[in-house]
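User: My advisor asked me to double-check a structure prediction for Ketosteroid isomerase-like protein before group meeting. I don't want to rely on an old file, so could you generate it fresh from this sequence?
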Amino acid sequence: MALESRDVVKRAWKVFGSHDSELISSVFTEDAEWLAPAGNATAVALGGSSHMVGRDAIVRFLAEDFPRFFVRDVTIDFHGFYADGERVIIEETMTATLANGRRYSNDYCFVFELRGGLIHRVREYMDTARGHRMVFG
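Assistant: Sure, here is a fresh prediction for Ketosteroid isomerase-like protein from the sequence you gave:
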C-alpha cells in the first residue's frame, strides 16, 4: 500500500506542473482540502485563502493562480518521499521567478492524505517569514 500511495502522489505532482485543469481535477476527491499556513505570502499576494476547500478551488489555484504568480524557472528539488498507508510526506525546495521579477526559494513539507486512491487533504508547511521577505521585500 505504501508504494501505491507514494506513486499516486508522485504522479499528482507531475500533473500539478501541467497546469491542466482536467488532469489536476482527476487526482483530487470532490471534497478535498488544501491547508497552508494562515497569512502565507502566496495567499496574501493573490488575495486568496490559505485553506482551499473543494476540488474546484484547488484546481483553480494550481491551474490559474500558481502560474500567474510563479511565472518562470519553477524548479522542485525533492529531498524525500515517505509513505505510510494512505499518508505521504514530501520534503522539497521550490525555486522560481515571481511575477514581480524577484527570485523565490523556499523549503516545504507536504502531508498528503489519500482516500480511495485520490488526494483528500494536503497540509503544507513552509517558512512563512522567508516567503514574505522574498515576495514583499
